[in-house]
Amino acid sequence: MPAIAPRPNTAKPTPNPRDLLHKNRATDPRLRKASRFVSKTHFPGNGGINAAGYQLWITPFAQDYLESIPDAFAKDRVIDRIAQLASLPRSLDTDSNKAAIEVYRAPVEDYMVHYGINSGRLTVFDISLNRSLEEKADHREEPRLYHVTKNESGWTTRTATPTEAVKTAHAAVNGMQNNLKKAVWLMAEHLEYHHGETLSAFTLYHNPTRGGPADFWESTRDKLGLRTDVTRLFVDILGDTQRRGKPVHWLAHSQGGIIFSQAVRDYVEKGLYRGRQLLPEERRLDKLKVIYDGAAVHVATTDALMKKAGIESKHWTDPADPVYQIAGGNALRPFRPITAIKSLATLPRVKGGAPESSPHTLAHKGPQVRKQLDAHGAKNPNLVKAGINWFWVRFYDF
């Protein structure tokens, strides 16, 4: 496997797996910084905090969405449902995440309450539209730039505003099956890992989702040179950013790596920019830098293209990320059978697991953190998946 660029030694103690669900930095960012859920209507005798049943906690991410629900009646119904979870967290209408330990979602009106249970503590970490309404909303999203700022709740869509140009020092392009809500927090998680938690703003080029099969076909078309609308628009964004004259550090994740690379190819090799043909001397993009993080691109091919464009680039990934190894072709050219087998074994975690159980979704934070997450961040109910789970946890480093 091509060498992964080293990071400064900022290692922290290995996380206690019992704490992973609620507060560890290695987990899904939506799970962090939870506080007790307060409702004086439902729990008037204890300052609004329930004294019986499961302790109710809520994260700033979920609280932010709760406060943004426009209909007052629907908002009250969601609050009612959260309060009820203290005594009945696993009712017949709740849906258990089959790939994650003690993670559930409960329907209420047009919404879903997402929560995890650990040691007598129930933590609401997200609230969303139900699947049908969310899919309809996702299909209305279009590729475009967003200026995203960090607020007291972290990174949420309430602070993502459309913009016409990249005006920040950091920017990102997301991968497959990311609606705007997910793209905001996930790209922020990757950027904070690479550039530090002091990051307060970035620009997101949102690659909207149309569902797994459609997103896969979109990626395939770009790889075959049949340009998609999302990549065609990004060519002009790269050109505009270069012409502004200020350095921008890009991060390209998953399918975002394909979009970034193919847009650079069109700009540098074909000279395409805003409907006109660029002169050879105009085709540099040396104001840009990029980190390919878990990207579906071939390292050697991509690095040659970035060098031609004048872009400083590096690659960062979990060694067993199947998107990087298989979709990107890095375990196939040259063929490394053990690496290919290891990465294929993690596909169930990538396709159906919780974000922290996947070697692809979140930023790779080193082998020790990965082994902890593998051991405590996923469950696999059938014998085949259980066998993969057992194999993977024990032989991660082979």
Describe this structure in words.
It is built from 13 helices and 15 strands. Among the domains are: 33-133, RelE-like (YaeB-like fold, 2-Layer Sandwich); 141-316, Rossmann fold. The protein has 398 residues and is of the alpha/beta class. A 7-stranded mixed β-sheet has the order 8-7-10-9-11-14-15, sandwiched between helices. Strands 1-2-6-5-4-3 form a 6-stranded mixed β-sheet.
Describe how the helices and strands are arranged:
Layout: E1 35-36, E2 55-58, H1 60-68, H2 72-84, E3 95-96, E4 103-108, E5 111-118, E6 121-129, H3 131-140, E7 144-149, E8 160-162, E9 170-173, H4 180-195, E10 201-206, H5 212-223, H6 229-244, E11 248-253, H7 255-268, E12 272-273, E13 276-277, E14 288-293, H8 299-309, E15 312-316, H9 322-327, H10 337-345, H11 347-352, H12 367-376, H13 383-394
Parallel strand pairs: 2-6, 9-10, 9-11, 11-14, 14-15
Antiparallel strand pairs: 1-2, 3-4, 4-5, 5-6, 7-8, 7-10, 12-13
Helix pairs in contact: 6-7, 7-8
List the main descriptive attributes of the protein structure presented here.
Rossmann fold; globular; seven-stranded mixed β-sheet; YaeB-like fold; six-stranded mixed β-sheet
Hey, roughly how much beta strand do the residues contain? 15-25%
User: Average pLDDT, to the nearest integer?
Assistant: 88
Q: Remind me, CATH topology of the domain at 141-316?
A: Rossmann fold
Radius of gyration: 22 Å
Number of helices: 13
Structural class: alpha/beta
Order of helices and strands: EEHHEEEEHEEEHEHHEHEEEHEHHHHH
By CATH reckoning, the class of the domain at 141-316 would read Alpha Beta
CATH architecture of the domain at 141-316: 3-Layer(aba) Sandwich
Low-confidence stretches: 6-23
Q: Assembly type of the shown chains? A: single chain
The order of strands across the largest sheet is: 8-7-10-9-11-14-15
Q: How would you sum up the global shape?
A: globular
Could you tell me how far the N terminus lies from the C terminus, measured between alpha carbons in angstroms?
Answer: 14 Å
**How many β strands by DSSP?**
15
Q: What can be said about the biggest beta sheet?
A: 7 strands, mixed
What is the share of helical residues? 25-40%
